[in-house]
Amino acid sequence: MLKNNLALIRERINKAVSRRNTAPENITLVAVTKTVPPRVINEALELGINNFGENRVQDALPKIECLPAEINWHFIGHLQTNKVRQVLPVFKLIHSLDSIKLAGAIQKEAEKKNMVANVLLQVNIGEEKSKYGFRWEEVQDALVELTQLNHIKVLGLMGIAPFVEDPEEVRPYFRRLYSLFKAINLPGVEMKYLSMGMSNDFEVALEEGANVIRVGTSLFGSRS
Fold first, then answer.
1. What CATH number should be reported for the domain holding residue 133?
2. What is the pLDDT of residue 28?
3. Residue 215 structural domain
4. Which residues of the chain have pLDDT under 50?
5. CA separation for the pair 100, 220 (Å, rounded)
6. What is the pLDDT of residues 136-175, one digit of tens each?
7. Short-list 194, 177, 222, CA closest to 30
8. CB-based contacts of 75: which residues, under 8 Å, 6+ apart?
9. What was the pLDDT predicted at 191?
10. What contacts 76, CB < 8 A, 6 or more positions away?
């Protein structure tokens, strides 16, 4: 099942990026492994996936400890300040920097560890009360503040669109986030990754400029 699902996803990626006139190799597929056991993650690794995303620290760490060290782990969920210490050593990229308070905690812990934490700034693109992230009008000022933190490196933006039946309805949100992504020009900030699009809407996200997609259900099937 996994092999067939991955083949279908790659086919969908290829078609979406061809409509945007870019190449599939420019896209990073992050396989979201919430509730997925290490055995299945190893299968995905053997199929050529090397970027995996987790959104709960306590669930991720036991799996990470028993899986190959060469895996690139992405933290994609809401990160509580008291979990930063556990996240920094093992996750290559934090997609969900959603407040200046969290940035301060990351800066403090990264300084202790003598490292630079790679992060994406999370934008609340649907302006939903149930979701975390900076509001559109806060992004520029937040980025300016973050350039003062020498143990944090901003590498792009992340957004989660409202969940709707028809992915076409979220196209304007993705288009607006891509426009913001392209417009940012600040010393010390690198707009390298635009993480947007999940199982239900990643094709629209790719058409609108995403170069990182986070896919779980389409790859591993429905989970609790």
1. 3.20.20.10
2. 98
3. 2-220
4. none
5. 34
6. 999 999 999 999 999 999 999 999 999 999 999 999 999 9
7. 194
8. 53, 54, 55, 57, 60, 87, 91, 93, 94, 95, 96
9. 98
10. 30, 32, 53, 54, 55, 95, 96, 158, 195, 214
Helices (H), the chain: 2-20, 38-46, 57-65, 84-87, 100-112, 139-146, 171-183, 202-207, 217-220
* Number of domains observed in the structure of the chain: 1
Residues with Cβ < 8 Å from 78, sequence gap 6 or more? Answer: 55, 96, 98, 132
Contact 190, 152 (CB under 8 A): no
Report the pLDDT value the prediction gives residue 224, as an integer from 0 to 100.
58
Nearest Cα to Cα of residue 194 among 180, 181, 207, 175: 181
Specify the pLDDT at position 178.
Answer: 98
Q: Decide if 160 contacts 132 (C-beta within 8 A).
A: no
Q: Quick one: DSSP state of residue 211?
A: S
